[in-house]
Design brief:
With 152 residues, the protein is of the alpha+beta class. The chain has helices spanning 2-17, 19-48, 78-87, 122-126, and strands at residues 64-66, 71-74, 97-104, 111-118. It is 40% helix and 15% strand.
Length: 152
Amino acid sequence: MKSILEDLRYGFRMLAKRPGFTLIAVLALALGVGANTAVFSVIRGVLLRPLPYADPARLVVLWESNLQAAAPRESTSPPNFKDWREQNQCFEGMAAMAGGAAVLTEEGEPELLSGSTVTADFFDLLGVKPAVGPGFTPESTEQDVVLLRWFC
């Protein structure tokens, strides 16, 4: 303990003798701490923020695997999902989602749109509601319904 105190006293004496070096050292530390804080803030805002769903710690994603086709993760086929849902004994609820794309060929240039096909209870299970409109209703399971999302 005594040697640590002596080392600290010696360090402070050297810093007091050389104010230019002390200023550069303090600025380097301030820049390092500031840069780390900025990077962590960006990472926290992009990667570490909580999911915008009710109780995100209870969400589980299930995939199918096709080892013959070397596909470790595949979307579940609708018949398999139906079987999983009927035999479910451990999940509060189950909903399915499959990503996809479509080409809009109205007026002008064709435009590639990305989207997802989801089951009618998807948003209820996540605890989210559309900003405008009713979302899916029990009647919407009988017909094809589209929910749009808009980015400004």
